[in-house]
## 1
Amino acid sequence: MKKIKTGTLLLLLLVSFTLTAQQKQTYVMEGAVYDETGETLSGATLYLKDRISIGTATDNNGKFSIKVSRGDVIVFSFLGYEKVEYLVIEEKKDLRIRFTTASQQLDEVVVVAQGIQRKISSVAAISTVNARELQVPAASITNLLGGKVAGIITMQSSGEPGKNLAEFWVRGIGTFGANSSALVLIDGLEGDINSIDPADIESFSVLKDASATAVYGVRGANGVVLITTKKGEEGKLSITARTNFSLSHLNRVPEYLRAYDYAELVNEANVVRGDSPIYSDR
């Protein structure tokens, strides 16, 4: 009985020693780091998760070599990409690590007179409009501002085609005369808000109070509209097309008289007024 217990104990000790030896077994991991397009990344950092002091970086060809132990976790990182963790189970000489672009939530910013500022740190009265909200069928951008921007008053005086452009004021009319409307700046230059295609707008901001418009002096007394248009970007060619159509019909169509009945009524009206009939019976 004692011999069985002794043999079992020796067997357990041997298994424990073997597992410990395997866990402490060291490897040399080699491989390369790639981005989403398959290009190698030079200067990417890699280190052991619980031992940051042990690490290295990829060379000019995106290749790396690091000494690790079984069970270690290698963390790969590169600016603008999500971190990648790799658990070491066996030695590899051709390890391929592929990064994916990091999707970070940026702080909300607004366009002000001096440039771009974080919205939370701005104390001026500034309203912004999402460019997507302006990409709807309408005669002009000014027709869309009413009800979308606080403090803007719009008025459309005519529905005639070509004259159905609405006028707008920021917090009412502050000055009477030729310059009673707000100052509109398109990419820093004064322009006509109705001449812009809504699809070309990148950002749309309205400066309403004195602290926001002080840099523009008297010209900005009635508010300032800052519009930034889209610019070219690196990457694949992208083409966006949009079309819309409408069908209209009259809900109530009058019933017209026939020619003979119309002539009779006209003659009757002339006779009542003391005039002679216009149409004869022939």
## 2
Amino acid sequence: MVKTTIVAMMAGLALGASVTWWFSRHGAEEAPPADKSEAQVEQGTNGERPVKLDHARQVSAGIVTANPRIMEVPSEVQGYGRVLDPTPLATLLLEIESAEAVLDASAKEYERAKALFADNQNASARDLESAKAAMKRDRALREVARARLLTGWGKALAERDDLPALVKALTALESALVRLNLPPDEPLSSPPTGARLVFLSDENRSAEADFVSPAPRADAQMQGQGFLFLLGKNSLELRPEMAVTGFLKVRGEMLQGVVVPRSAVVRHEQRAWVYVQTDDAGFARKPIVLKHASDDGWSIAEGLSPSDRIVVSGAQVLLSEEIKAHVRFAE
């Protein structure tokens, strides 16, 4: 009986070992291979995380690369400002027109009194002096209004021959007057030649504005140089007090750069980036500075070369893969 029990136990152990060996062998053989089409993100030595995608995954993700187009970039300085409210300007212009009308009437009254006084004393000396005093008072009031226009809006604007027509266009929002300010530590040695205005909320929309004059007064907050620009045709549909970014064009040599399409730019960590192809399957994220807006993208003067292959379609996919990998690395 004991002998039979021992034999049964040994047979059971042998059978269990055989089953375990069979499942471990065949289970390993039947495990599905890793999906090599998934994006692979490597942890670089300097903190960078290049994304690796094979050709099939690039096609499915819509990854398209291209060499950036060479372009001369104008020398520009970035400024910030707002659209000026034309109501004070319009009110002041009406005051000047009203003062001129009153002065015209008092000047005519003085001339009439002077003629009557000279013609057999038909007007008294007192009447003549009163008319003269009224004319001087009205002239002074007109000059005060003109001085307010000059000090508040600048000589170039105050002396425009078409100022009434311009004010009408500004109040109708057909044109826009914009003030741009520079940081105190970035002064210009000469006035800008113009500016490209860009929405703070939508940098894809821009328009060229003409330089008017230096701002007649300093900005209480910025304390740097200020300049006035006129957007003759308000294609951006700007409204008073809207915040805008401006790229002030300054005199100087053109810079050599490249044009980056807007579709190539991704935002991350409050910066702008593009993905540059490093090899057949590798893409590295590279920071860029968006200073020079153009009709077909951004003109980049530093950081990229015409030989770089940048991702012009599918860059957001690469950023998503990189962010997911960052979470895995953090875990």
